[in-house]
Amino acid sequence: MALYSAAAAVLEGLERGDGGIKSLVYNSRFPHVRQLYALVSETLRYSPVLEKLLAGAALLQAEKKLPPQLAKVLVYDLLFGKGLKCGGRWKALARRHRARLEAELARLKVQQKVSRNEDLLAPAQAASPGASQVPRYVRVNTLKTCVDDVIDFFKRQGYSYLGKATKVEELRALSGKKFLLDLHLPELLVFPPQTDFHDNLLYTSGHIILQDKASCLPAFLLDPAAGSHVIDACAAPGNKTSHLAAILKNKGQIFAFDMDTKRLATMNTMLMRAGVTSFQLAQQDFLTVDPRDPKYSKVTHILLDPSCSGSGMVTRLPGQEAAPSAERLRALAGFQRKALGHALRFPALRRLVYSTCSLHREENEDVVQAVLRERDSAFRLVSALPSWPCRGLAAFPGAERCLRASPADTLTQGFFVAVLEPCGEEAAAPSSLPVAVEENPEHSEGTAPGAAPKKRKRKKQRVK
């Protein structure tokens, strides 16, 4: 049963936009990574078929306690895989509905005039326009090292460093073992697509974080000063939390919330490996957190990246990118509005970043517009990274202050980011002037595993 639970957790993470399939599988702590990856991949491949089978057999209506992603995994292995390998109540449940599921599968084959299971699949297509051109982004973990030392480390591994990029086209042209420093984020290295670092010493030691550029934008734009108290409202799997800690230089406090026990355990391991110390994890729904609790009286910054449709995740496999139903979009948008409105109730709040990995206006501009109306002009949108080429959709006056990301235009996952501040607060300079932080010597502390120190007063830890 551990295999199916792990696979369902990966599918849920993909749906939330927590990362790509490889990173979620490798971070799952499941001992048999290849087995888990194969099961997740095949379940995703058959996802449109599985959804039709689940709907036709009314399985989720009959078994209300069965999580949808777990249902997909069980039905895949029952009908298309090697047979259920689990025991207990889930196996009994699946077998109880086996006749209905097989009848629905037969009906689907007759309807589509095919005889083999494989023929139910749509012709293989690219996962998403531009998916193959999204580079591999590597965020240097400045809690343990610095950009110069990581560059030196990769050069000793045979990579050629081409310097700082000046335009997106340079990222698009990367190939072989060449890499660049990103043109917007000062601690982000860019490698050709499909470059794999999961077994690299820098990754396993926590000196680098494999994180898409768009996913780095929320913490970068929140930009809390060292010593700040920060809330990461929907924190797992922890990449953004570790980024916040690096920006804070482990000074101050991060309150991180998530509802899933296993995800929190995985996140705790990841944060410890990354050298994060100033954090408190809580298994709690952010909506139940009391903004007036004295514990959060000093919270000045909030990062809110709530559950979303994940429609911007170009690393998904074929069949995974089906558009969410109108009903699901309404439900997601309703939750997102509640979460954003709740976050704006914290009394000391000075800056909030709202982000999703969704392409849908309903989860992005419409949510921001609705909450700003509800707050009756108590908050305003700040222009997020004005040099960024893709802006928010023209859903309301000022929506262009938000930013969007896409594989075609910015060579990233699809993403949306809005920065909000109380009216009367001065706009924070780092979001408008990202270049200003690039030369900050405080971002150069540390050393990569095996690299020589760069004339600093104290040495960071090394990996032998």
TrEMBL record:
Gene Ontology MF terms: RNA binding; rRNA (cytosine-C5-)-methyltransferase activity
Family label: Belongs to the class I-like SAM-binding methyltransferase superfamily. RsmB/NOP family.
Database matches in PANTHER family: 28S RRNA (CYTOSINE-C(5))-METHYLTRANSFERASE (PTHR22807:SF4), NOP2 YEAST -RELATED NOL1/NOP2/FMU SUN DOMAIN-CONTAINING (PTHR22807)
Organism, scientific name: Thinocorus orbignyianus
Keywords: Acetylation, Coiled coil, Methyltransferase, Nucleus, Phosphoprotein, RNA-binding, rRNA processing, S-adenosyl-L-methionine, Transferase
GO biological process: rRNA base methylation
Annotated ranges, domain SAM-dependent MTase RsmB/NOP-type: 126-423
Protein name (Swiss-Prot/TrEMBL): 28S rRNA (cytosine-C(5))-methyltransferase
Gene: Nsun5
SUPFAM superfamilies reported in the protein's UniProt record: S-adenosyl-L-methionine-dependent methyltransferases
Superkingdom classification of source: Eukaryota
Positions with a binding annotation for S-adenosyl-L-methionine: C234, A235, A236, P237, G238, N239, K240, D258, D285, D305
Region (Disordered): 430-464
Biased composition regions of type Basic residues, renumbered to the chain: 453-464
Major subcellular site: nucleus
Active site per database record: C357
